[in-house]
């Protein structure tokens, strides 16, 4: 095979474990630097419609944060316009979305930040088509990864042993670099322990998040020109929702998705009457009103996400060469903040930067360079989740102060467009959380009296 398209060859073969979003992003950047890239997955990836077994969360509402849209556009130039041409709703994060926090609507503001309201399945299809078209990328479907293969001293990973589901045979797939993109169920900590390495420390926040979702047909313009309602969960309003327009349907009307979400074991029923009644408790009456005349397109499905997880590979002092970790296998934060695909896309850009130096990425340097992106998102998770008294976690004086300040920010955004825009930039991972602590922001948030929110769901309605 000829020189890789990127022009700077780092190695002969890279193997990516996992063919979902993280694996596809990795495959895209690795194809610039390796003569051959092989993506291995246990599922069928092509010729499949709907939600795959490995990604049940894909059934539920998804969108890309502003930073994620920019990162994916860097990885796949033109994909935003390609998606728009295919009917994916696209708009301004502040002007075309209806944000609701503590039951109050944020002012409409034009931010210049792009919201690509693309369903997870559609995003995978667009990206997989792009990656599959690369001449040096091969996909192996229906294969389980049994173990890592290493040098005798176990200091370097040299490939993986894979099992063919069709006939039970196994083979070793040699590699100069292996990238684990197998998601939060990654077996890498176990494999490392078997090789004599210390597994990474795990940071967890037990949130017991639930999503319950159904898709509907509604008349065109049901939300006017807006793309979605984004109803944030807060302690005073613990039930949230995403009600979003996904695409025009060929036989008339628009397809909408409604995902109802809550922490701490509260959840919407999966039978229609209960689902509708639960939707009525969300502090946006228009959602319940729209559902009364909407045509259901599928059955109601639930998805449970018990714990946010960050595996701290950046803290390890020993780690084998020839091995990296990307995506949910490294960190899978609370999906209610929609950060997962964005974090993964930025990690892929970091990997690309390392590869363009012309040498194999060093694991310690890579993990150190992606950690700040994960940290920025994780801090948002921590402050949002620990604001709930029932969520278990260490509340240092600094965290208590930050949670109290975030509550003030949530109150200020309803009537201060300047604070609202800064908040949306931080939520979209364009700016770090420190942007809300600049003197100008402190003065606006703390210098005005903002009424405390009135709860719409009594505490007794939230089961433990």
UniProtKB/TrEMBL annotation:
SUPFAM superfamilies with a match to the protein in the record: FAD/NAD(P)-binding domain
Species this chain originates from: Plantactinospora soyae
InterPro entries: FAD/NAD-bd_sf
Pfam families: FAD_oxidored
Gene3D superfamilies to which the protein is assigned, alphabetical: FAD/NAD(P)-binding domain
Domain of life the protein comes from: Bacteria
Positions of transmembrane segments: none
Name of protein: 2-polyprenyl-6-methoxyphenol hydroxylase-like FAD-dependent oxidoreductase
